[in-house]
Amino acid sequence: MLGSSGRAFGQGVPDSAGTARDSIRARVAQQLTTVIVTPGTYGLLSPVRGSAQSLGREAILTRPQLGEDLFRSIQRLPGLASSDFGASFHVRGAEVDQLHVSLDGLELYEPFHMKDFDNALSILDVRSVEGIDLVTSGFTSEYGGRLGSVLSIRSRAPRTDRMRTSLGVSVSNLRAQAEGGFSDGRGGWSLAARRGYLDLALRLAGRSDSLSPTYNDLFATVTWEAGPRHRIAAHALLADDVMEYRVKDGGIASRYASRYGWVTWDADVTPTLTARTVASVGRLAWARTGDAQIVSGGPRSTVDDDRSAGFAGVRQDWMWSASERVILKFGAEWKPARAEYEYDGVRIRRVVIADTIARIPTLVSSGRSVRGSQLGAYVAPRLRPVRWLVAEFGVRYDRTTWSGDASMSPRANVLLTLSPATTLRLAAGRYTQPRQAFALQVQDGVTEFGRADESQHRVIGLEHRLGRSALARVEAYERRVTRQEPRFINLRGDLRVFPELEPDRILLPATSGRARGLEFSLRGLGQGGVDWAASYAFARVTDRVGTTDVARTWDQPHSIYLDATWRPQGGQWHFSIASQAHSGWPESPVRFVLDTVKNSKGTMSSTVLTVYGPVTALGTLRLPWYHRVDARVTREATFGRWHVAGFVDVFNVFDKENPAAIRYKTSSANNRITVTRIPELLLGWLPSAGITVEF
Question: Which domain holds residue 585?
Fold first, then answer.
């Protein structure tokens, strides 16, 4: 276990011969705590001790990425799927909300800007981050409340020797960061702020409509070394979004706010017993109003959505180094929460009644208040009975009051060192995910919490170092969703700001599901100034509806990712290129029905009705294969105490047309239907540039 400064717990200052022996034992046991026992673990920005599967800060910052975004910088790891528009990603087919995201020990909920546009950017500047650990499945018992995967983020510890300032400007945002120390270096502070203006980037991409999104975020930290055994840090993370968008067929005005404040206390209670305490408060707010012309020739569908959530929490994690071969992890957390819902929507549907076209309005309204708490506790011993074997066996208990859920989750992780160059990791366990207090689909008429979803993970991973030049990994996994609540989805994958109003909105009555796959990855270790990585994944993710396996909307049977960066001698220039290709996403068949109706003159004429579904047909059709190449050039220079870095980035270098969905235009004549397929395209060629000055 590490504090946010990277200092290992358990390394206290000995004050006698006895405590000195304890300290030596603790340092030896610390090697056991840093062993990575979970398959599918990736360390980003700073290396993960115990695993060579890591990407350093230089590799991350010089990779092609849109918007200099924390989440976008890692989207090409094996097993991840995402769209061009969004920073959020699906790990091994799981939904976005099945990813547990934490920052310095605090869980973050929906940590994205521009939620109406597929979570376009994350709310944390990548330059404020020291390290990221992504665990794609089979994570250990200290994490609860999620079915899929874990993303743990550690902020950069402030430099305390002198004040440092960083200023940056790019096509998408302005950013400023400052840090320094006080009390002779015992205390430190840092402040990072961004102001975004994505409307400029969208104009460069050829968008000339009224879309005008703005966002800002701020992250502040103060740290204090309260003696050789105690470190205290206070954090604040604030984010806001404002967007207005008006076109002929409708418009939206939205505002979002995220507020987090928390204090962490890392303590070496004794040389062999360490603890971390996190106390937190937070608030989220959502507001959407607007209208859309879903049905031509009729009234507009409307939405007025105003929600908020408040939460707090106390968490403690303990680790006891019983011996050089045994450590014990245990902890608990309590999180009271509340949520307020105020939703009113009117949806217009076009139907034929007798021989008349009717536009039927449906009112969806919900005013609801939710109060309750979540309790979690875990215990997990880790053992090294022999030099080549490390095993961790844990069990977790979770209870959620607003849904009445309570569960026990046993988990096991094993590491076998087969040779100095080869390791085998295995994981198996049970995972549960209750609904968050603010996550009811009230926009679809859902007003009650269902039971928690449950899944079982089984993972096996083999990692082998090929001399000093490359590292190879192969992993097989299966995630069985043994219980899940029905949910509403859209059958098409194009971008909609009011997805609940669309005619392809449908209930997916799945009660179970399955994700399985095989991943191969190969990564160079930076020989000759070239960093590179390549991966291929075969995967399927389905939901079970009755006796039918239905493909999830992010099912990618085949995906290939390639990254390469060349750093010429001297290291001031970086030339990077990235390519990705994957199977087309599932599409739902669309039926067109010709009917005869009375027109405005009272005579009979033909009309075409579009019928989406059934949901069990999702995936019987697929979009074309997706392919994209990105490139980035980075130049760095140092002038005394000044460091300057600039970049030019091109997204979709060859302007490849990748459809997100297919739109259909219909007409009829002589009792025949004519259908025109119109691809709804993802992002095309998009240049960006930026410069950062540090001093």
Answer: 17-594+610-694
